[in-house]
Amino acid sequence: MRAYDLIYRKKTGGELDEEQIRWWVEGVTAGTLPPEQSSALLMAICWRGMSTAETLALTLAMRDSGARLDLSSVPGVKVDKHSTGGVGDKATLILGPIVAACGVPCAMFSGRGLGHTGGTVDKFSSIPGLKVELTEAEFLRSLKETGFANSAQTAAIAPADRKLYALRDVTATVESIPLITASIMSKKLAGGAEALVLDVKCGGAAFMKTREEAEALAKSMVAVGKAHGMKIRALITRMEEPLGWAIGNALEVMESVEILQGQHGDSVLARLSFRFAAEMLMAGGGAGTLRDAERLVSEAVASGCALEVLKRFVALNGGDAAALEDFSRLPQAAGQEVVRADRDGFVTAIDGRALGLVAMELGAGRRELTDLLDLGVGLRIHAPVGTRVKKDDPLVTLLLGGRRPADPGQVFSAFSLSTQVPPENPWLLGVVE
Ligand code: URA
């Protein structure tokens, strides 16, 4: 086989077969193909797209490029969730323990943050001592003993994805629905979950800016999951303003614990997290209807069982579970600065992407994968969309470490104020199944 022929075929609108795709992925993984040929093929895929059969073949070849977890020793349908990435999105920390508390094993692999979006692994890593990259044995033990396991993907999982992503990153080929689908789904399939609920974010602070793009990605991932026999469903959710009051790793742990304690129950973050937990319960066979699932979710929070699961998960994996009760044990910021409203009005919009970038500049996120984080810094939002503020009321507090934003005015200009009450925007935009 010659890479030239694959590139030519894709460039001229042809379809690649399973054998060709597997040969390419094996060559990428082994490092035997020149990067310029893989880059050319990636660009051809970007322009020409891929059929569902091609996308599935690419996903499976990438899954098989490394280790696969076998979760069959854990009884029950193992469920996972994936979010395409948002600002302030700490839903995994909330819904994972809830699902486990309801009796459905929740086996989750998460990522680290990059750019304006945060990553679940970074949020968990702000809990002192907690091991965030579990071995297979540790992952299984956590799942068996607490019903919940969350780990960073180890280097052994889908190595082809890391190699391809590095090429995509420098050749402007990240934005391709089949390539994103194969990248995400190969890692999820290698992680061993049998059911998956997807949160495809849509809006100015998301990867997918329009409803059409988000729907196309959701359909593509659902088609690949189904073709593989997975129970899968995608919810398309709005991502304009940050989710919740916290942006920053330790702060997001605090907000998650507060929600598991029954606070902020009507916030968009709580509603989204509870709905996803309910979807996961249904996917895992823990409830027959959405209504039943939502009742179980409320009970798991109200009884304190979900928070108990989180504490047990943290303690089992070396973390300081007492920090979930005493937030002073979590990493703290050294200083703070309050940004205030310059007039009376209603907050009609908050630019989540802009605030996510500020959080990154403070050290809560990474510009490059190798950047070191400051886990205590971030932003505390006082005035979510819809709040009526008076001149000089606080909009947001910056929790600062050694770094400051290059342009502090960015924080203020992320807030839109108006004399008009803003309409309420639905957080759930659609369901793809
Ligand atoms: N997240 C991934 O894991 N892969 C992509 O290609 C895009 C987002």
What does this molecule look like?
The chain has 433 residues and is of the alpha/beta class. It is built from 16 helices and 13 strands. Helix content is 43%, strand content 15%. Strands 1-4-5-13 form a 4-stranded mixed β-sheet, with helices on both faces. Strands 6-9-11-7 form a 4-stranded antiparallel β-sheet, with helices on both faces. Strands 10-8-12 form a 3-stranded antiparallel β-sheet. The longest helix has 17 residues. The radius of gyration is 22 Å and the shape is globular. The model has no long low-confidence stretch (mean pLDDT 96).
Distance between the first and last residues' Cα: 37 Å
Order of helices and strands: HHHHEHEHHEHHEHEEHHHHEEHEEEHEE
Q: Biggest sheet, in brief?
A: 4 strands, mixed
* Share of helical residues: 40-55%
Whole-angstrom Rg: 22 Å
Which properties best describe this structure?
globular, four-stranded antiparallel beta sheet, 16 helices, binds uracil, about 425 residues, alpha/beta, four-stranded mixed beta sheet
